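Hi both,

Apologies for the delay on this - the queue was longer than expected. I finally got the fe (ii) ion-bound model through. Below you'll find the protein sequence and the ligand SMILES exactly as submitted, and right after that the structure tokens for the full complex including the ligand.
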Amino acid sequence: MTSEKLLEFLNKAIARELQVSIQYMWQHIQVTSLDGAVVEGIFRQIAIAEMKHAERLAERLDYLDGVPTVTPDPIFVGGSLLEMLKQDEHDEEESILLYKQAIQAAAKEGDYTTRRLLEEILAEEETHINTFGKLLVGMTEPFTQPGISGVE
Ligand SMILES: [Fe+2]
Ligand SMILES: [Fe+2]
């Protein structure tokens, strides 16, 4: 019998996955300029990965007789590319913390299948934070702000 706590962790993770999948997809659509053109494909790729995470977690939750949430955590869109990347890096950091806690909860009650699923997703979140962190290296605010070229 799965604890309420673990079911809650799975739903928290689903809410977060829904948030970031929409967030990254909209960032993919909304980024502008040359630097935006370079990274928009990366946003899209990670958005799709997050949607697959939501699906896998929902499948597991359903198997455990839980009901997957349809409500995402608050979605952050807009702003400069620098702001987007900082937000995304922060969100990945929080996801990593959440998955680590959920893994401990799953292990504690001997649910090794859920634990393995969470560990697989955690490993992917670590690649995401690495990607966002690398994109942030050397970025400065003026580079991403409109009008810096003096055109406006
Ligand atoms: Fe994810
Ligand atoms: Fe992620």
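Main takeaway for now: The two ends are 63 Å apart (CA to CA).

I'll put the files on the shared drive as well.

H.
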